[in-house]
């Protein structure tokens, strides 16, 4: 069983379902509007409205938990990590994907988004929030340490776009 946390409109849920056709994939998000879109795009997956800080599942239920561009929005990250740890089976894996290093390329990305926002977007708030939350989120090395302090062990890390985006796979230790 796979749990896609902060699934939003279900784009990652769709990818995980395609990659694991025999697995049951559940998307969870606290926004009902996001979930409606997610269900529309993924009619065969299950979606649950819920809070990452209080997951509505028992211990050791999932083989894989994923969070793509999600934990950045959670203030009490330690609590979310302890919830993820709880619902994962022993030996289960946690895939975390989000913006990565705050480097030159990340600054170019910020400028690009600001440019698009100024010229093409009527409501710039979500894009400005994106840049702000991205730059407030710790860099991968710091996060990896934080996740390991919460009982995970990193198995693999892959950076994309010169480190602007980073994915890591952890195992429940
Ligand atoms: C940037 S979106 C990520 C969506 C999706 N994973 C993707 O990459 O397309 C972040 C999502 O986190 C959800 N979210 C924020 N706080 C949450 C919480 N405490 N519990 C569950 N979902 C939450 C928001 O509703 C939003 O849909």
Please provide a written account of the structure.
The protein is of the alpha/beta class and 173 residues long. The protein has a domain at 51-101 and 138-172: 3-Layer(aba) Sandwich (Rossmann fold), CATH 3.40.50.150. The chain has 6 helices and 7 strands, in the order βαβαββαβαααββ. Strands 3-2-1-4-5-7-6 form a 7-stranded mixed β-sheet, sandwiched between helices. It is globular, with a radius of gyration of 16 Å. The mean pLDDT is 94. It binds S-adenosylmethionine (SAM). S-adenosylmethionine binds next to helix 1.
Largest sheet: 7 strands, mixed
Tell me the overall shape. Answer: globular
Averaged pLDDT = 94
Instruction: Note the gap between the termini.
Output: 19 Å
Indicate the CATH topology of one domain: Rossmann fold
Number of helices: 6
Strand content: 25-35%
Q: Which bin fits the share of residues in helices?
A: 25-40%
What's the SSE pattern?
Answer: EHEHEEHEHHHEE
How many β strands by DSSP? 7
- The CATH homologous superfamily of one domain is termed Vaccinia Virus protein VP39
- The CATH architecture assignment of one domain turns out to be 3-Layer(aba) Sandwich
CATH class label of one domain: Alpha Beta
Radius of gyration, rounded?
A: 16 Å
Task: Name the poorly predicted regions.
Answer: none
Bound small molecules, by name, code or SMILES, are:
S-adenosylmethionine
């Amino acid at each position: 069983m796979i749990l896609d946390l902060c699934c939003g409109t279900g784009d990652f849920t769709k990818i995980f379902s395609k990659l694991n056709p025999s697995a049951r994939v559940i998307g969870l998000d606290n926004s009902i509007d996001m979930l409606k879109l997610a269900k529309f795009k993924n009619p065969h997956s299950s979606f649950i409205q819920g809070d990452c800080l209080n997951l509505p599942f028992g211990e050791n239920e999932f083989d894989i938990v994923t969070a793509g561009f999600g934990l950045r929005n959670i203030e009490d990250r330690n609590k979310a990590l302890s919830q993820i740890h709880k619902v994962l089976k022993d030996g289960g894996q946690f895939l975390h994907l989000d913006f990565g290093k705050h480097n030159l390329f990340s600054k170019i990305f910020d400028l690009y988004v600001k440019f698009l926002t100024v010229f093409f977007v009527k409501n710039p708030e979500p894009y400005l929030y994106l840049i702000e939350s991205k730059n407030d989120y710790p860099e991968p090395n710091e996060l990896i340490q934080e996740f390991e302090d919460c009982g995970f062990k990193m198995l693999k890390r892959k950076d994309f776009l010169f480190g602007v985006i980073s994915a890591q796979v952890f195992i429940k230790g």
